[in-house]
Amino acid sequence: MTKIYNMLENIASNLVKLKREFFQSYAGTAHIQEAIPVSWSETFPIENFYFDSLHKFARNNPIYYDSFDQEIFGIRCIVYEGDVNKYWLNSIQHNASHAPFSPTWIFSAFVLSMMASKLGFSDIADIGSGDGRIAYCAKVLGCNSFSIEIDNSLVELQNEIIKKTQIDFKPYCSDAILFDYSKLNLTQPSFFIGGLAQMGGNMLASGVLEKNRHQFSNSGFVFAGTVSPKYASDPTSNAGWGTIIAQNNLNIVNRLILPSAWTAKEEDDTHYIFTQIQNSNPN
After folding, report:
1. How do residues 42-58 score in pLDDT, each as one tens digit?
2. How distant, in Å, are the alpha carbons of 16, 47, 63, 132 from that of 156?
3. How many CB atoms sit inside 10 A of residue 213's CB?
4. Separation of CA 84 from chain center
5. In terms of pTM, does the model score above 0.85?
6. Which parts of the chain are beta strand (E)?
7. 132 contacts 170 by C-beta, under 8 angstroms
8. Phi then psi for 51, rounded to 5 degrees?
9. For site-directed labelling of 109, which of 49, 145, 196, 216 has its Cα 20 to 30 A away?
10. Domain coordinates of the chain in residue numbers?
């Protein structure tokens, strides 16, 4: 398994380099933009079927309104341009909303889902899922995937994507803290927490952890973190999540650094921290 982990870490590192190279020349004005390689390469040794699935998600996602081919680092990519302002505003109107919608890159979502799968988690629950890209990628990879999103317009968007792609990642419109996870029949779940700790993700994570840590003793939690100086740091570090990790007796099992919409034009990319409840042992 070490070889697979190293491969995914290399892919993540190369994706960060590709992002930085892309933005050195990007002159567009789109609100969000991201590049997805077209096919397998030594830099990104992912089967073409999976790349096709990522492009299918982008082509059938209404937040993207334009695309174009571009060679980056000698790798043919398609760049997708979009706008999530409407959905961002909708997502913060709910009293129980803890983290506004701002997506990770689609390829990043795939790498994250694959890492969780390789760590032994068969169920992926995308909490605060936005347009459902992590749950979609997990489903493509053969996991049991679920999407929990409080904003009904985003859930409608997910259902539109499901209808067009025929990839059903099972979205639920609900407050993730109040949601009854027992009805999902989870066995070895990994909960992806949407949002930085400093942007409301800490409240979302604490609520989901309190509800599920004893119900699913073999569960994992994946946190999106940042070391950017513009966000308050955590006294125990870990990209803003150190205190919650310590308070809940979570064991860090892996880390990845990957591009997201909010780090697209920044030097510091998003730190994703894979944890599991102490004494659990996914195979």
Report:
1. 999 999 999 999 999 99
2. 31, 30, 12, 11
3. 16
4. 16
5. yes
6. 32-37, 64-72, 75-82, 123-127, 144-149, 171-173, 189-193, 220-225, 250-258, 270-277
7. no
8. -60, -40
9. 216
10. 2-277
